[in-house]
Amino acid sequence: MSNSLLYLSRQDVEACTVTPREAREAVLGAFRDHAAGRSQSLPKSALALGPGHAFQAMTAASRAQAIATVKWVASAPTQPGSPVPSVSALICVSDYATGTPLAIMDGDEITLVRTAALSAAAASLLAPPNARSIGFVGCGLQAHAHLAAFRDLYPGLETALMLSRSRGSAERLAQAAAAQGLATEIVEDADALLSRSDLVISMVPAAPALRPFLDARRMKPAAFAAAVDTGRSWLPEALPAFDLLVTDSLAQSQAPYDVAGQPVASVRFGHDLTTLAQAPLTGAGAGRSLFCFRGFALADLALAHLVLEKARAGGIGTFLPR
Prior knowledge:
By secondary structure, the chain is of the alpha/beta class. The chain folds into 2 domains: 4-110 and 298-321, 2-Layer Sandwich (ornithine cyclodeaminase, domain 1); 125-294, 3-Layer(aba) Sandwich (Rossmann fold), CATH 3.40.50. The chain has helices spanning 10-15, 20-35, 108-126, 141-153, 167-179, 190-196, 273-276, 297-314; strands at residues 4-8, 39-41, 45-50, 53-62, 67-75, 87-95, 101-106, 133-137, 159-163, 183-186, 199-202, 223-227, 244-247, 271-272, 288-292, 318-321.
């Protein structure tokens, strides 16, 4: 039994410099391993305390990566512009065969990168191949992570549109996109953003007064949307306008979720990334597609494994006595 445990702070995780492409490929590989029976994962366990306020446990084990992980993640409502993060996470890594604890690492950066990597992985299988415009509904930290992920996946992107309840966050995201060579515009109208975007990323946090406002019928005939917000910002009655509805794991979710956190009755998911990573759909980018997801524990495992390998190779982190 090991007498030490590797601790990786958020600064340590950032120092491991996982690229958007590495993250996307690791996530796709995790779903292929899962389809081949080389890993197992439990559906997310959540203790909900109120709108946007919950504690969750995400557990997975992979023979292919020789590790098991559990991510403990908490979410709490925050005010616009607050320096306090709305999501906080920690990941524990154990040896697959012996169960020996190997590492504890900050999960905030991994959650950011993993979530954007999931959206990009889905887009690589579902979105129009020559996308030129991307719309961000919500412009916080996740939007910046998604900007990096989609800029890597679509080097031909030309335009970024921003819609946010916080003008300051929209301006910061616009500056980041402009620095990467994109033409940017902050918009006030959701329909205008949807009608002009080949790619849409919705990241609207839960709030007691939230009402759905995104209308899938306003999207381009060929477009892709990633609902990082599990679907709460989308009008349930308009969801049938999507030709394809996909999630990360059908074992975990059967339909998008409404503002109350309940599955909608208007549609059901037809596919998940486990099946699509093995057998992509022909012509998927020709219509409207929605990727709506809660986050899958095996994606967190894939990123934790990548970070752990980079930390070991680079001598990053602090060994703690057990």
